[in-house]
Specification:
The protein is of the alpha+beta class. 36% of the residues lie in helices and 26% in strands. It is elongated. About 5% of the residues have low confidence.
Length: 309
Amino acid sequence: MVLLRSLAMLLLLMYLFCLPALMAQSNFSTNASSARALDALLQGYAYRAFVRPRIRTGVPYDGDVPSNLSGTKIAAMRLRSGSLRSRGVPMYKEFQIPIGVVVRPYVERLVLVYQNLGNLSTRYYSLPSYTYLAPVLGLLAYNASNLSATNLPELDFRAFGDPIKINFSGVQSASNGSVPKCVWFDLHGLVTFSNLTSDNECSTIQQGHFSVVTESVSPSIPPSRGEEKKSHKEVWIIVASVLGGLAMLGLLAFLVLWARKCKQRKKMQQMEKAAEVGEALRMTSVGDTKAPSAIVTRTQPTLETEYVP
């Protein structure tokens, strides 16, 4: 019982160690979930651009967004999967889609939804310690079997030949000493940085959201007295937590060894008790050593000549 209680305390301590990381992951997941909700909303508004007598394949149609998303631009383009793979799309807004792009699962027709988040880029795709030099652009693929559908899941959109090129327009100049970087946000919230392939151009082989960023250069400000105390307090909390964890591990190891010894001692007591219950043996001296000997002797042999029928 004591061992189980100590193990529970150890697990609680491990949970306290992991709590800050879990909280940080939770905050990041919250931003990712907001971006995914925005994708679903923009997909519905982009499909509304197809409400017209005749829809031409391979032609982009600009859509309208609600007033609370002002500054955001969307468009939709319907394509055949076979035509996309064999011909590509020479220019779709800032995207150049090469030959060899495959969509999975296979659908006969698909819609490529374009997004330009404008001044909402930092709201849905926050990057601490980085500055956006261009708005976040999105390119997502959806099934085109029902052009009035909403909340559709994205299709897997991947280039198996040349990469998809993204030519950003109106890119701001980076500050002195900083190097612009391409950033890619996948649909699961993963952030990947890469070098620009040329001036204001990035490349990708998958769908997602893209932009150009640079590391923020902030002047070094000495910490205030309150911040220093807070920093020292956090250090002491971490040190105390580590020492407490080591102490708990040592206590747990001690309890395990103590339990094993108790088990062995109990087993020896049972063996001694069983020996006391049995028949006592007489001790006999053999040289300088005493050894137990049986009281009963073996049966005396009988010769055949002594046998009388």
